[in-house]
Write a structure and sequence with these properties.
Layout (H helix, E strand, L loop, with lengths): L2 H14 L3 E4 L11 E5 L3 E7 L8 H12 L4 E4 L5 H9 L2
Parallel strand pairs: 3-4
Antiparallel strand pairs: 1-2, 2-3
Length: 93
């Protein structure tokens, strides 16, 4: 499955729960995750979307670890089957 297809599935699933999965663009701070998932109740998490089997680039790994170190929920999504688990993890945090 293509990255954009997985990303669209994520956006639709989050919207169905009453939240938003906004495209996250950070000029001057490359390597940040693709989506910021905002769920009801003030819950949020960062999601890097990849095509099936693709890996994060080195800078993306650095940003992922930085966010985790700051206490943020961060995820790598590379299949449609992971979407529900990721959303549930963010929501129950």
């Amino acid at each position: 499955m293509l990255e954009k297809e997985i990303e669209l599935q994520l956006v639709m699933a989050v919207k169905k729960m009453g939240g938003r999965a906004v495209k996250f663009i950070s000029p001057g701070f490359d390597g940040m995750p693709d989506r910021l998932v905002l769920l009801p109740g003030g819950r949020c998490g960062f999601v890097e979307v990849k095509a099936a089997g693709k890996k994060m680039r080195a800078l993306q790994r650095v940003r992922h670890e930085m966010l985790k170190g700051l206490g943020f929920k961060t995820y790598v999504l590379d299949s449609r089957e992971q979407i529900e688990e990721i959303i549930n993890d963010i929501y129950t945090a």
